[in-house]
Amino acid sequence: MATKIIGREEEIQILDRLLMSDRPEFLAIYGRRRIGKTFLIRSYFEDKDVVFFNTTGTKDGSLTEQVNHFTKHVGKIFYNGAKLEVGKNWDETFEILTDAIEATKNKKIILFLDEFPWMATKNSRLLQHLDYYWNQHWSKNSNIKLIICGSSASWIIDKIVNNKGGLHNRLTQRIHLEPFDLKNSKAFLHSVGVTLNNEQILPIYMVTGGVPYYLARIERGHSAAQNIEKLAFRRKSFFLDEFDNLFSSLFEDHETNVELVRAIAKNRYGIGQEELLKKMGKALHGKSGMKKLKALQDANFIIGFKPHFHAKKGVYYKIIDEYTVFYFDWLEPIRKTLLERSLTKGYWDKQYNSPEWESWAGYTFEAICHKHIPQISKALNLSPTAIPATWRYVPLKGSTEEGAQIDLLFDRDDDAITICEIKYTNKPFSINKAYSAKLQKKIDIFRKVTRTKKQIFLALISANGLKENIYSERVDAVVTLDSLFKEAD
After folding, report:
1. Cα separation of 232 and 235, whole Å?
2. Angle of helix 90-102 relative to helix 63-78, nearest 10 degrees?
3. Which of 39, 176, 186, 429 could tie 462 with a disulfide, CB 3.0–4.6 Å?
């Protein structure tokens, strides 16, 4: 891992305010597994003049194991490693911590409770005791900064952020830690000596999705194809085993969550909630099904959205985690083979020239563009008020009408709409006569179906730009890959 914090400017500002505050603070930090939550907190406080108490919950650990580990850390941090008598429950354990806090004078105390949901074993009443000790003791000490952390984002949101009991409105700060964008992925790789260019970093991002723990496995001196082949297409490779480890660590009924994500992944441009309910049947029944969808959204695997200019109302879902898409499309179909043996050396390098790769990379590049809308908007010199959206028209069965798909559009407040065509090619994209006519047809269908009177501008988002010819003049603006690597406003 990098030895210094990369990016995370907004998060560091929050931690700065927390540290400098002259009042007690209560922070919740959450985000999917491998995203760098623990690294951020530990790295930030390691050189600060504070008492840093850090303990981590044990997955599937018993109450006895949890309080035993907790008490050991109290002895280590507050009593120079002294062995303390272990309490029987969280009430007694928090009493031990409170006594230690009261004996510490004139220093700020960081209470970092990592993987807190794992500490909340059945019938442990952990939340009730946290409620009591925060309200009765810790919140009266201006030196205390409590930080609750967990990979189960939905648990943290439901139990801490949106707590309806004694912790209601007690939170003073929150951090939802998300994957790196392209700019910070590049900065992270460079910080560990991997100095690849933008064209090499893009396919790495297509596989890792900007997750720091995955990026840390990229080796210097090797190309993107060589790194991906080693991490994915060797016998029992990291990316092969990671999928089950990831979902089983985040969700209790993880098999159902996987099937839910798989069903959504089959619909690249999104699937309506009603259609999804029908496909999943009992697995997505009632409140429990909606709770699963929310948990997947909280963990940044899927996104719920309402299509712009869409006649049929309702929520649609789309997968947004690049690693999960990569696993479904490239690893799961050959999982049995990879459990037994590695594929032929150079396998992934050869895929770069295959139609399957070109199709997959095109879709994945489009998804990445949707994650970098602020950079695209800036490159197009659009107002921050421009609304980004996608648009799709599917004619009724039996109709003679043509359908149309718009990758990305910006509905502007200056009586105009910028329609974006997204293309991933290894060389400048070339518009020929047939493609020019296709673009015009798409715009015509959009005008007819939406009945918009706004001015239409056409922009091309192309990894390697646009080749100039007699048809390229119809494009009003071009956004290249380099623009996606820039700082967003």
Report:
1. 8
2. 10
3. 429
